[in-house]
Amino acid sequence: NNPLSIGITNEAAYRKACNHVYHAATGETWFGSYDSFQNDSSFNDSLPADTPTGRPPNAQLGDLYSLLQLAPKGIWDERISQRVWQKFAINCAINGLTVVYQCKNGELLDQQEKQHHLQKICHEIDQILIAAAHPPETPLYDKAVLIARQTAQNYSSMLQDFKNQKSLEIDYLNGYLCKLADQHNVHCEENRTLTQRLKNLTA
Question: Which domains are seen in the chain, by residue range?
Answer without folding.
Answer: 5-78 (no CATH), 82-201 (1.10.1040.10)
